[in-house]
Design a protein that fits this description.
Layout: H1 10-43, H2 49-85, H3 100-105, H4 113-123
Helix pairs in contact: 1-2
Length: 124
């Protein structure tokens, strides 16, 4: 299915897809490392209250990072589905073309800059 805006070439889509897949694999690897580190922190026997507090803080920090990474993975998966459906590069709100500069910086973005700003202002 061709891109609705008609300006995204197969070659460009392939580059974005390759970038998204590589970044996604990197995040999956990091999440796996965080999970392993979190388990190590959990299984270490803390000697005193200070050790327990540090262990708890470290585990919480690692898990919060993984939540952010999971959210990014979700966004990347959605972008890969848009590539497959021929919708990549179009704003999911207004259907206008997302600028190449924005896609190069955030290839997983579902919105043009205007709609992103509007969405953020509505949530604050």
């Amino acid at each position: 299915m061709p891109n609705k805006a008609g300006s995204m070439k197969k070659k460009e889509l392939a580059v974005y897809k390759k970038t998204l897949v590589a970044r996604r694999n990197e995040i999956v690897r990091k999440l796996s490392e965080f999970r392993n580190e979190s388990k190590e922190v959990e299984t270490d026997i803390a000697q005193d209250v200070a050790d327990k507090a540090e262990s708890s803080y470290t585990k919480e920090f690692l898990l919060s990072l993984s939540d952010a990474e999971r959210d990014l993975l979700f966004q990347m998966d959605a972008a890969l589905r848009r590539i497959d459906r021929g919708e990549f590069g179009n704003c999911q709100m207004c259907q206008k073309e997302i600028s190449k500069k924005r896609l190069n910086a955030l290839p997983w973005t579902p919105f043009c800059i205007g709609c992103q700003e509007k969405a953020e202002s509505e949530t604050t």
